[in-house]
């Protein structure tokens, strides 16, 4: 667990990541056959990073669980999968000095995916993922510590970590065939029927009728002759 401290310290100075909440506005593309069964979020050994605001385990569990439900309930595949998420560490940036010291908020989780039908883990070792605050007009210069409340920081980080989980799952779908592979869950659109001119349709119907008559004649029962005395 000690290794999370330098990681959290490093993350506070890195560039911000994509905006998970904004990504929800994009059209829903299936993740193979994935459909969310249960999402279990825990925080057994959460670590608070340096120069961070305080947040309780319960607050983090509620925020991350809400973000996961919002993102993954959109997918309606044919098979249920469960997500186990352990919140490992966080930094909720405090107000800094603009242009000199603007700490960034960060969140680290471990993720495991289970297949409902078999009860098996898709990844034997939990995958560790991290997320940073997304850039905005309120945080680009002064950081989220000054531009957002603690609750806003937590909601933004939770949305970003849910997006990080989805991005990782899609990579596993492509590379390891999770959730049925890249073609699973994609709706099949039938090709439009080819238009046939009325004259050609009539000729086809006459030909079909003639062929049907010939077939019926071939299978008619022969006349039975009277038995010889």
TrEMBL record:
Q: In which domain of life is the source organism classified?
A: Bacteria
Where is region (Disordered) located?
A: 189-229
What keywords are assigned to this protein? Signal
Q: What is this protein called?
A: Lipoprotein
Stretch forming the signal peptide = 1-18
PROSITE patterns reported in the protein's UniProt record = PROKAR_LIPOPROTEIN (PS51257)
């Amino acid at each position: 667990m000690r290794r999370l401290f330098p990681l959290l310290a490093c993350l506070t100075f890195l560039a911000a990541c994509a905006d998970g909440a904004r990504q929800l506005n994009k059209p829903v593309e299936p993740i193979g056959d994935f459909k969310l069964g249960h999402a279990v979020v825990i925080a057994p050994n959460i670590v608070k990073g340096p120069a961070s605001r305080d947040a309780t385990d319960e607050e983090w569990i509620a925020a991350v669980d809400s973000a996961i439900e919002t993102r993954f309930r959109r997918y309606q595949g044919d098979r249920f999968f469960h997500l186990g998420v352990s919140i490992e560490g966080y930094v909720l940036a405090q107000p800094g000095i603009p242009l000199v010291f603007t700490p960034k908020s960060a969140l680290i989780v471990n993720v495991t995916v289970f297949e409902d039908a078999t009860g098996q883990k898709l990844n034997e070792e939990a995958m560790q993922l991290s997320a940073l605050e997304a850039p905005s007009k309120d945080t680009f210069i002064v950081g989220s510590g000054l531009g957002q409340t603690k609750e806003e920081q937590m909601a933004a980080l939770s949305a970003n970590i849910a997006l990080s989980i989805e991005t990782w799952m899609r990579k596993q779908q492509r590379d390891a065939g999770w959730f049925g592979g890249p073609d699973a869950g994609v709706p099949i659109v039938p090709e439009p029927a080819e238009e046939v001119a009325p004259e050609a349709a009539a000729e086809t119907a006459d030909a079909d009728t003639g062929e049907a008559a010939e077939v019926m004649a071939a299978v008619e029962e022969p006349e039975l002759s009277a038995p010889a005395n």
